[in-house]
Amino acid sequence: MLLKRSTRGAHSAKPPVLIRSQCFVDILEERRLRSDLGHALRTFRPSPYKGGPSCSAADLPKIVLESQHLRYVVKEIATETGASPEEVREEASAILEEMSQNLQLGFIRLLGYIFTKVFKRLFTSINVNMEGLKALQQAIQESPVILLPNHRSYVDFLVISYIMFTYDIPVPVIAAGIPLAGMKIVGAIIRRSGAFFIRRAIGSDKLYWAVMSEYVRTIIKTGFAPLEFYVEGLRSRTLKSLMPKLGMMHMVLEPYFKGEVYDIQLVPISLSYDRVLEESLLALELLGVPKLKESTTGLLKASKVLQDDYGIMHVNFGRPMSVRRLCRGKINLRQYNLIPRAEAQACVSWLAHLMVRIQEEGSLISPWSLMACLLLQAPTAVLTEQGLPWHQLTEKTIWLRKLALDFGALPDPDVMSSAVALHHSVVRREAGRVYLVREEEPERKRPISPEEDVIRSAAAVLMMVSYRNQSLHLFVRPALLATAIGVTKTAQRDELFAFFCFLRDVFSNEFIFIPGESSQDFEEACVLLRKCGAVHISEQEVTASDAGLEALSFLQALLQPFIDSYQVMFRFLCEDKVHVFAEKQFLPAVRNLATKLILSGELHTYETLSSDTQKNVLSALRRLETLAKLES
Amino acid sequence: MASNSSGGGSDRQRIAQQRLRIIAGHLRRPVDVDSTILAAECKAQDSKTDVSSEGKTVPRRRQEIMKWNGWGYSDTKFLFNKKGQAEFTGKRYKLSGMIMPALKDWLEDTFGTNLQHKSPATPILTSSAVQPPTLNEAFVEELKSTGIPFSHDAEDRVFRAHGHCLHEIFALREGKVGRVPDLVVWPNCHNDVVRIVELACKHNVCLIPYGGGTSVSSGLECPPEETRSIVSLDTSQMSRILWIDEKNLTAHMEAGIVGQDLERLLNESGYCTGHEPDSMEFSSLGGWVATRASGMKKNIYGNIEDLVIRVKMVTPQGVIEKSCLGPRMSTGPDIHHFIMGSEGTLGVVTEVTMKIRPMPEYQKYGSVVFPNFEQGVACLREVAKQRCAPASIRLMDNEQFKFGHALKPQVSSMFTSFLDGLKTFYITKFKGFDPNCLCVATLLFEGHREKVLQHEKQVYDIAAQFGGLAAGEDNGQRGYMLTFVIAYLRDLGMDYYVIGESFETSVPWDRVLDICRNVKLRIIQECKDKGVQFQPLASCRATQTYDSGACVYFYFAFNYRGLSDPVHVFEEVEHAAREEILANGGSLSHHHGVGKLRKEWMREAVSNVGMGMLKSVKDYVDPNNIFGNRNLL
Fold first, then answer.
1. How far apart are CA B89 and CA B105, in angstroms?
2. Range with the lowest mean pLDDT among A100-104, A620-624, B496-500, B528-532?
3. How far is B538 from chain A (nearest CA, A)?
4. Using a CB-CB distance cutoff of 8 angstroms, which residues of chain B are in contact with residue A336?
């Protein structure tokens, strides 16, 4: 029982949620053999949801505006603001217009055509698990379906639609950020491909919330189409899973909570890339170089990236999961009987975290990601100057791959040398050694300052960090335990558990832990470490074994950059006598301190420079109520 | 005595003979003779005001006319005749003696039953299956001295040990008998009850009141943990109308009178109560009060709580009653509301004063076909909004519509058959209704002729707004008739491996559709999960409309072939269905009551404090738990 690989001990009776068998099919293969136009014009015969009344895209806004809830809110706002109900209604109507998708098959076809062209150029193959797709096809007929992909690249957007179009599954409507709508032509195209647009900071705009939630609710209730959204909210700049956002999740689940639908199926989808298109952009962004605004010209400029090879894209459709089954015993729906708006935050949060965990489990771990883990454990100076012996790296990677498989990674058959070749932007192999590639030094008059040099290395390191992050979730629980063993120097199980929980608590914004499941996480860490022979476990004790030193020290080193970075920031906050500071000042100040420490040789990681880590620390401290955010 | 007709007379003779036997047995004890005289006095007293006591339907020995292990009269049942056609035996109902050609196919299609696979019931009750009675000798001795008839015959006791829950009937059909009352006692009047309750308190005997025996909440089940002697107090012999007050339009009855007698007797005087629960053939006035019953025609006459003017109940602390017949009072919380719905946990209702109405001048049935259930519900909602609901309005879903069709008797003339065909053609082909979606509302109008016709038009106009088509009086009438025969049909199903049950709830309007869909889907899913091999029948109807919501009835049945413990599976599914109802904003019960079947949800239904209130009333009224059926709390 203990050996069973399950992150959700309490639900071990459930069938495994992940589809582990390896029937991935390269969907580009057929495209390369046949005409792209033929594919775009294929007969599209989806089997839609059987339960709901069918309605057209044009009906949706009407239903939303006529809904009792919205009419009620409109009246309420009219009374509050003194505006006439007609004005408020107009406003609601305008919001709806800005938001609404306008799904048209013609545009899906157009998109299909463009995508086939682009994808064939970018990727060697797009591997999709057919079993998951089949399960999805079935689920869509039975109940409203929510597609929950992770978001790692701009390319993600609409790729699900593309696949579903190819396999005769109803094309989803997709929640997208409003900036996309602003893009010339492209905005219009994606709107017609099923995207609906949501403002980023909604805050307390009551009318907006009402319109949006009613819109989402209506889509689900009527079974208009599957709904797709990013449970993480954003594209992860670090390729590491983000803390899930709960607002949309809550909205989506509400029809179930209120009994308006019998069930909802959640389908976590894991997209994993051998190489991400925007890798260098992301690294720069993390170092404080501002993000480019989404624009059509920007997109066209970016087209130069189309010249490169990005390896394989894996799309792993998780098994559809019934919300009804998941929520059994988690939530008492009777609370909705009296007050229509009772909170179900805990359950929603649990579900959202669970979805992200399943996305993680469904991601493929490429050898390159494992290599990145190892490369990052070598001193950066060594990497840039002397390089790492190739055979040493390969041996170690083979060892790590075995460990990863032990920990339940999906095996990926890729080869190491080609992985290195693919990532020529980050590493270079030369005369039996591997070097970190830094951006070409621009021609300039004055010599480069040490600080600028740090940034140059940091950009390269952070790129590699992203790829390491792809496999981090696999190791994080055992790594917390390994660190606990290393720090506490104890074998007592309950002491280790206490320290494990402490670390888990501190790093809850960094890694995805399902709330309230710390003992399951600890149990999992123990089981995995024992499985790879790193520890002996008895009723009371967890002791490191001699054979396990390699694994334990690898795992500790994996977590070390995070511990170091957090400590630097804690130190900054403690030393800084000021009790109130602006977030805008905090980030550069920490960056300066870290740069100094790196130059002085005190700090060995460049990750402290990443704005992502910095923001996570602030969030963690706020969560732990060490810091409070003051509204200006 | 002269006022009694022959029917009542013969009953009296029987009682008198019984008494004679008792007297003979106790000839040497003058005290006993006194008490019998007292009982006779009570009788004589009544006879002065007795409006009528003829045509008592329920004898003391119920087994003389009723089934011991199924629903209703012994002479009435569904069966498949030699030709393999379904037939309804007996002469009591409009459907009696008729052949229903479509029923066989419907059963086979719906449940996958096969006439070759029978699951017959144990034909007779073997007395050895019944545990010998645990008698409280002192109590029995004193009871004898009162002259109130009693029995510890096995059949009498088994008859009063159950209601009509599926598990109860299923066990009886298998010849299995659990804990049953040790003694059955038949009081004849209020004073008899006072005496019995006194004796029960004195000797610490557990009393379980028994009215019509139609409980579907495990309310009559004897608590297995009860160690005291259990006495079933059968009120069936207290069934007189004591007076009718034509000035105030009220009538005063003994609580044991069953619905059909009450209506029939009042009708003879030109009145009615208008209270017609589906079980009215057998259920008693006292039972209605004790469970907060609801009648089909509540839209005109009201539910039991609207009809009751005054109640007399005998409790271990004495008799509870109000001092006047005022139509409404502000005297603190209404004590009637401790009585109504107390489910026999506080005492025995012995007499009730109720509103009566002149019999309606005109009655008209009607029906409307809707393209789908959603439209039907929308129509009912609108009718409720405009407060123009007819005496009864019920909406059946598609499954029940089909079921109703299956019970159509063989058509005698070619012409009717042709007409039926034409109607079907009109509705499905011309109007484009999908026969697998359409549903039917049945209507009953009552009152003055012109007003009924006016009212009818108003309702049909509303129905038309929701795509409803008038579908004739026949369909409506048949719908209501089915109410009375559907319980017999369960027995037929049980002969062929089909078990089923109905249960009800009340729910706000905005949730009606959701609850109907979700509960039906839940039933289907649970059956699948629990290994039921055949698709279950999950069907519902909205049977009552209120200003703010509706009463919804669910029917659920499945073929249990291949299951080792069908009743357990059945109970699990029923439990899940109730959970689903509660999760969807439905009430624990609209009118069936809580009993022991739904007790586990009671606390959540009424809150801790609410529960404490009820408990403290119980503690005061019945500190020794004499009324120990353990319902409700």
1. 19
2. A100-104
3. 15
4. 585
- Residue A18 is predicted with a pLDDT of 44
Amino acid at A588: P
Q: Does B436 touch chain A (CB under 8 A)?
A: no
Cα distance between the two ends of chain B = 45
| Apex A63 CA angle, A62 and A64, nearest 5 | 90
Please report the ipTM that was assigned to this predicted complex: 0.75
Residue with tokens 């929308």: B378
Do B583 and A258 make contact, defined as CB atoms within 8 angstroms?
A: no
Chain B residues whose CB is inside 8 A of the A334 CB are: 582-583, 585, 604
- What does the alpha-carbon distance between residue A599 and residue A597 come to, in Å, rounded to a whole number? 5
Element housing B17 (H / E)? helix B6-25
Amino acid at A74: V
The pair of three-digit structure tokens given for residue A235, joined into one six-digit string = 């594209």
* Gap from B374 CA to chain A (nearest CA, Å): 11
A619 contacts A627 by C-beta, under 8 angstroms: no
Ranges of chain B with pLDDT below 70: 1-56, 412-419, 421-422
Q: Binding site for FAD: what residues of B are annotated?
A: 209-215, 291-294, 343-349
Q: Is the dihedral of CA B349, B355, B359, B364 positive or negative?
A: negative
Query: What pLDDT digit, counting tens, does each position of A302-343 carry?
Result: 666 677 888 889 999 999 999 999 988 887 777 676 654 445
In the 8-state DSSP scheme, what is residue B429? I
Residue B472 has what pLDDT?
A: 87
pLDDT at A247: 87
Contact between residue B214 and residue B164 where contact means Cβ atoms under 8 Å apart: yes
Q: Is the Cβ–Cβ distance between B287 and B323 less than 8 Å?
A: no
Compare CB distances from A259 to B374, B518, B604 and report the shortest one's residue. B518
- DSSP run (H or E) holding A321: strand A321-322
Q: B601 to chain A nearest CA, in Å?
A: 12
Cα separation values, B578 from A273, B566, B583, B603, Å: 48, 18, 8, 15
Q: At A155, is the pLDDT very low, low, confident or very high (cuts 50, 70, 90)?
A: confident
Please state, in angstroms and rounded to a whole number, the distance separating the CA atoms of residues A258 and B513: 12
Residue written as tokens 């988690």? A330
User: Residue A495 pLDDT > 80, yes or no?
Assistant: yes
d(CA B232, CA B342): 17
Of A53, A68, A262, the CB nearest to B518: A262
Which residues of chain A does B511 touch, with a Cβ-Cβ cutoff of 8 Å? 259
- Chains A and B form CB pairs within 8 A to the count of 26
Measured CA distances, A543 to A5, A479, A494, A535, B574 (Å): 21, 15, 13, 5, 51
Mind listing the pLDDT tens digit for each residue in A83-99?
899 999 999 999 999 88
Q: Which residue has the tokens 């549903």?
A: B439
Q: B132 vs chain A: nearest CA distance in angstroms?
A: 45
Contacts of B529 in chain A (CB under 8 A): none
What's the rounded Cα separation, in Å, for the pair B72 and B66?
6
Q: Is B517 in Cβ contact with A262 (below 8 Å)?
A: yes
Active site amino acids of B: 553
Q: What is the identity of the amino acid at B11? A: D
Return the structure tokens found at B343: 């489910």
| Cβ contact B522–A336 (<8 Å) | no
pLDDT band, residue A410 (cuts 50/70/90): confident
Taking the Cβ of residue B75 and every Cβ of chain A, the question of whether any pair is shorter than 8 Å is answered with: no
Judge whether A204 and A244 are in contact, CB under 8 Å.
no
Which residues of B make up each annotated binding site? 209-215, 291-294, 343-349, 490
Looking at the DSSP assignment, which residues form a beta bridge with residue B556? B501, B538
Question: Residue B510's closest chain A neighbor by CA?
Answer: A260
User: For residues A318 and A359, what is the distance between their CA atoms, to the nearest angstrom?
Assistant: 8
Tell if the CB–CB gap between B583 and A259 is shorter than 8 Å: yes
Binding annotation of B for substrate: 490
